[in-house]
């Protein structure tokens, strides 16, 4: 078992370079299947979710060549088996993008039901509805989703909820369907636009990504492409909030400031100094942050994936803030851990009341999911004393070199391995 040890209380200072976006990469990597050719993907984040996707592609018959730390060449011409087994998908929600990509290429797919972060019920009814509406038959049995179509035919799809995953999944299948598919009430996150741009670079015809209505005219053939993935909005936001929480001064580089507007606006409301450049943002948390309430919403609203990190900042603010989770049913599980560090937060369903305290104190805690883990790191960096974070595998699913990057900013954070023998003795 591994854990992070953090000696808190140091201001973060210096520069950090943001990696490619996880939630774009996890759709774009399966999307290479559609090309039946060779693709080169740049700005790939080095995170365990991405490694799992490469493993799945490799097992299916794709040839993957690592050109450098963040660039890979994927040859998907020889993929034959449109099957993704349980062993490879159990920890990963985004494995469901293989359904759309395989359906687009082979008109069939057999993919194990997804795992991933646990914050309440995570249905996929909208994905299924969308596949069915373009002519696929969907069967859920023995933990597998089997999808099959004689022919995919474009159609009008109205989503009942705004879903990132369902929007991306139907985009993947519909690029090869016959005729026009119109997706209404589509998600508008930056990674939706990035996927559309990648698909278009392979010869697809996708218009309107980034708005509520996406129109896709199916094409017969898609070719290879060279493509660079956008920077990670949430990784950038995490370092921005960490700078503010430690009252440091950090230049966050390789970002698209437009993608960060809701985070920037919230930080400014809390009294944090934020300065925008073309592809960088400087954040300085000179004084104690002020209270500010927020509600998470689909893009362009405040992102749910920044809710735990922001709650940590507000837990150190002057005054009481209300944080409402507007996307997931149960995304406050980490609050119990944060309370162990001295935070004063009470939760009732999807609403947290955060009474700011002057300081947090280091404690042993557990990462309950990816962003909760990032939030606990921020809490540990800002706290007095030592914080030990367990279950860091959640964090490594989505943050590229988080220890290296925080260390470069002056943090005292280490990853340590607890040998199994020591564990056994302790039990
Ligand atoms: N929903 C349905 N039916 C569906 C799909 C979704 O009711 O068929 C509901 C969900 O229960 C939820 C809401 O719609 O209440 C939004 O879910 P969405 O489908 O947008 O989420 P997702 O695609 O499963 C992605 C990110 C999450 C992020 C959400 C919201 C990936 C791999 N995951 O999940 O990211 O929280 O969008 O922005 O892209 C993370 O990175 O930490 C993370 C969890």
Protein topology:
Layout: E1 2-7, E2 13-17, H1 22-31, E3 38-42, H2 48-60, E4 63-68, E5 71-75, E6 83-84, H3 86-89, H4 97-106, E7 108-112, H5 125-133, E8 137-141, E9 144-148, E10 156-158, H6 164-174, E11 180-184, H7 190-201, E12 205-207, E13 214-217, E14 226-228, H8 233-245, E15 249-253, H9 261-269, E16 273-276, E17 280-284, E18 294-295, H10 307-315, E19 320-324, H11 335-340, E20 344-348, E21 351-355, E22 364-366, H12 370-382, E23 386-390, H13 393-396, H14 402-408, E24 412-417, H15 420-426
Parallel strand pairs: 2-15, 3-14, 6-7, 10-11, 18-19, 22-23
Antiparallel strand pairs: 1-23, 1-24, 3-5, 4-5, 7-9, 8-9, 11-13, 12-13, 15-17, 16-17, 19-21, 20-21
Helix pairs in contact: 1-2, 1-4, 1-7, 4-6, 5-6, 6-7, 8-10, 8-12, 10-12
Bound molecules: uridine-diphosphate-2(N-acetylglucosaminyl) butyric acid (EPU).
Task: Walk me through what this model shows.
The protein is of the alpha/beta class and 427 residues long. It is built from 15 helices and 24 strands. The protein has helices spanning 22-31, 48-60, 86-89, 97-106, 125-133, 164-174, 190-201, 233-245, 261-269, 307-315, 335-340, 370-382, 393-396, 402-408, 420-426; strands at 2-7, 13-17, 38-42, 63-68, 71-75, 83-84, 108-112, 137-141, 144-148, 156-158, 180-184, 205-207, 214-217, 226-228, 249-253, 273-276, 280-284, 294-295, 320-324, 344-348, 351-355, 364-366, 386-390, 412-417. A four-stranded mixed sheet has the order 22-23-1-24. Strands 2-15-17-16 form a four-stranded mixed sheet. Strand 20 (344-348) and strand 21 (351-355) form a beta hairpin. The protein is globular, with a radius of gyration of 22 Å. The mean pLDDT is 94. The structure holds uridine-diphosphate-2(N-acetylglucosaminyl) butyric acid. Uridine-diphosphate-2(N-acetylglucosaminyl) butyric acid binds at residues 23, 26, 93-94, 117, 122-127, 161, 163-166, 187, 304-305, 327-328, 370-371, 398.
